[in-house]
Amino acid sequence: NNRGVAFQELGQINKAIESYNKAIQLQPDYAKAYNNHGMALLAIGQPEKAIESYKKAIQLQPDYAKAYNNLLMSLNYTSNFNFTDVITIANQFGKFVTEKAKIQFSSYQCLSFPIKLRIGFVSGDLRNHPVGYFLESVLSCINFTMIELIAYPTTPKTDELSKRIKPFFSIWRSIYGKDDETAANLIHADGIHILIDLSGHTKFNRLPMFSLKPSPIQVSWLG
Prior knowledge:
Elements: H1 2-9, H2 13-26, H3 31-43, H4 47-60, H5 65-74, H6 83-100, E1 117-123, H7 130-139, E2 147-153, H8 160-165, E3 171-172, H9 180-189, E4 194-197, H10 207-210, E5 217-220
Parallel strand pairs: 1-2, 1-4, 2-3, 4-5
Helix pairs in contact: 1-2, 2-3, 3-4, 3-5, 4-5, 5-6
């Protein structure tokens, strides 16, 4: 499995698939190998086969959040897309992450009648990425006399676009490498009124952290 990951990082997808197949042959109950196998298959344009690998990973490990994310993302790339099935899988994902949550906030530190609404953005794409470029155009139109923005990047990657949009945020607080409970506590302590997810089921998302409800209003947008 690790060899497959190395090959995939190098862009040698076929060799990665061979390694994942070998890992599965040696350990048929290895959920992580099935998940990685699915990622490699999707990379070479085989979403249907990727979906089967993700489903197998979830069958072996029902609380495997990454496999759920990859499965839900891959369903967008298949001609066999069934909206009802997607909703069912998404509900299953939501149910298990909620049940897994150790804490869930029921009271909040944000002011009920603030001078400015505090809005937080959680994303791994506050950089050279379509989400970053789209967000940049929106930020320039915000009335900052009424709104304060806080960024919660989920990856350490930064670039020129990151530098351009950073001044729009009063706080740029990375949650990269922090577990869900720690990240949720940081966001809760910041008194966020509205927390916006910009990733959906794409890479670097922190959807399980949202199940802890660190903000009274949570929405998903863009990703």
